[in-house]
Design brief:
This protein has 522 residues and is an alpha/beta fold. The protein has 2 domains: 6-135, 2-Layer Sandwich (Chitobiase, domain 2); 141-502, Alpha-Beta Barrel (TIM Barrel), CATH 3.20.20. Helices cover 31% and strands 17% of the residues. The protein has 16 helices and 18 strands. The chain has helices spanning 39-53, 97-110, 155-167, 192-195, 223-235, 251-256, 285-301, 317-321, 323-331, 340-354, 381-389, 399-402, 425-429, 461-468, 471-480, 486-502, and strands at 16-25, 32-34, 65-69, 81-85, 90-94, 127-135, 141-147, 172-176, 178-179, 182-183, 199-200, 217-218, 239-246, 306-310, 358-362, 374-377, 394-396, 446-453. The strands form 4 sheets. It has an 8-stranded parallel barrel, surrounded by 6 helices. Strands 1-6-4-5-3-2 form a 6-stranded mixed beta sheet, with helices on one face. The longest helix has 17 residues, at 285-301.
């Protein structure tokens, strides 16, 4: 039995919400009045409601459900909207197209919970409660990383994940496309990246030790699939942020093209372990040309204003042993091979910047980065404070509150998880959106926060969703507004879980872990 009154269980909570008396019913006679520029939002509304309700919602000049784009509504910003529901009709308006898309998701949540079902539902009155809502987010970056490099997921699942983000008014899907264990994005000039780098012989079992499953794993996307995903996400107000990790986390690329490494004569396989691999890119001009070529393909496929270039966990052991790397450091006047890390990232970031985009990196202690780089602070909040003081835009991704590959709790029923203390729902809700001791003005440089679903131990969509929900609901609440407090959120979440049930998200019962069947590279 679903709880009653969906308007009392909205997640995230709108900035201003007033409940009136009465309802407006959507039925076969409901028509949409769509003003110029509101067509995409109307199309999305029809697409999202049709599976469960069967309603066509055709357009008509006298429609009682109005979607209006009004650029004069500047106070609502890029993503704000106003929604008025009365017995006589519905008015959804915004100053920008993204605002209308956010409002469509609120309409979905105001309907009976069954409206989220993927199958037709009979015998339900599709009624919207009479409300007055004015809503806009406090933070422009509200994201989730999905790691498809460690365990590949088909693009059909990525579309579902986009839908789940959009429902919660999240606006960034950070797609981790490359790592030591797999390369998922095609680059036509370098075909072996996916042909060889997209497949590993087996996978390590657990976070440490020498146990392996003996099962090949891999896969890659086509350029057409990625372009279609970008378009699908944009229709829902979600930006796909691509990540190509350099100069570390590149063993899959080195397996495909040994000449990119520090020992071209050595032949490596795609890494089958988890953790930090010591193999990194070389520092020759041909390597920089390779990185530029890959980034040019990324820039062409993904129109995101930001491009993530990785930058984390880059051991310098190979550079310290390499005569070529030591010579490169000397020619550049660097203090030694360790300084090549910052040098390499500056070269890479510069290429992204010259293309009119903004580079993003993972924060690492001691890195010197160009000021235009956006920093994701994951190890320690102090790194966020340092970055903000230096003028960098910051996205909060503290592993203690945003890493959803950490266990949800300590129960024996929990599936395999990353080593570390559990990150429970309250910890995610407590994500710090203001760097401590960063000084005046630094808080304004915090763009928002993002949850991470790393997939070393996560093979299936069911496992992804069990880890993500309801914890992602807590992050969505905090980065949208997050001022109502934990007790109020926890009370609303009780009702919101009925939406997760309607969506088929296994949020309550841990998924059964099965061995991944052997597959053949395409």
């Amino acid at each position: 039995m679903f709880p009653s009154r969906p308007e009392q269980a909205l997640v995230p909570l709108p900035r201003k919400l007033s409940v009136r008396g009465g309802h407006f019913r959507l039925d076969a006679g409901t028509r949409l009045r769509v003003t110029p520029g509101a067509g995409p939002a109307a199309a999305l509304l029809r697409t999202l409601l049709a599976p469960a309700t069967g309603l066509a919602l055709p357009a008509a000049e006298d429609g009682a459900f109005v979607l209006a784009l009004d650029p004069a509504l500047t106070g609502l910003g890029e993503e704000g909207y106003g929604l008025t529901v009365s017995r006589q009709g519905v008015l959804l308006r915004a100053g920008r197209p993204a605002g209308l898309l956010r409002g469509v998701q609120t309409v979905r949540q105001l309907l009976p919970y069954e409206a989220l079902s993927a199958e037709p539902v009979r015998g339900v009155a599709w009624e919207l409660p009479a409300v007055e809502i004015t809503d806009l987010p406090r933070h422009p970056w509200r994201g989730s990383l999905l790691d498809v490099a460690r365990h590949f997921q088909p693009v059909s699942y990525l579309r579902r994940y986009v839908d789940l983000l959009a429902l919660h008014k999240m606006n960034v899907l950070h797609l981790h496309l490359t790592d030591d264990q797999g390369w998922r994005m095609p680059v036509p000039a370098w075909p072996r990246l996916t042909e060889v780098g997209g497949w590993r012989a087996e996978s390590m079992i657990g976070p440490e030790g020498d146990r392996f499953d003996g099962v090949p794993h891999g896969g890659s996307y086509t350029t057409a699939e990625l372009r279609q995903l970008v378009a699908y996400a944009a229709e829902r107000g979600v930006t796909v942020l691509p990540e190509i990790n350099v100069p570390g986390h590149v063993r899959a690329a080195l397996a495909a093209y040994p000449e990119l490494g520090n020992d071209p004569a050595r032949r490596l396989g795609v890494w089958t372990r988890w953790g930090v691999c010591e193999n990194v890119l070389g520092t020759g001009d041909h390597v920089l040309e390779f990185v530029r070529a890959v980034l040019d393909e990324v820039l062409d496929v993904f129109p995101s204003p930001h491009v993530h270039i990785g930058g984390d966990e880059c051991p310098t052991t190979e550079w310290e042993r390499s005569p070529a790397a030591r010579a490169r450091a000397a020619r550049k006047g660097l203090t030694g091979p360790r300084a090549l890390h910052s040098w390499f990232l500056a070269r890479t970031a510069g290429h992204v910047t010259r293309a009119g985009r903004r580079p993003v990196v993972w924060a690492e202690d001691g890195l010197a980065l160009p000021p235009e780089v956006t920093v994701m602070s994951w190890r320690d909040p102090a790194h966020a404070a340092v970055a903000a003081r230096r003028g960098h835009p910051v996205v909060q991704v503290d592993h203690r509150s945003t890493y959803l590959d950490y266990a949800r709790g300590t129960g024996p029923e929990e599936p395999p998880a990353q080593v570390g203390p559990p990150v429970d729902l309250r910890a995610v809700y407590g994500v710090d959106l203001a760097p401590p001791d960063a000084g005046p003005g630094a808080a304004a440089r915090v763009l928002g926060a993002q949850a991470q679903v790393w997939t070393e131990f996560v093979r299936t969509p069911a496992h992804i969703e069990y880890l993500a929900f309801p914890r992602l609901c807590a992050l969505a609440e905090r980065v949208w507004d997050g001022t109502s407090g934990w007790p109020d959120f926890a009370a609303r979440l009780t009702g919101h879980t009925a939406r997760l049930d309607a969506l088929g998200i296994p949020h309550a019962t841990p998924p059964t872990q099965h061995r991944t069947p052997a597959t053949t590279p395409r």
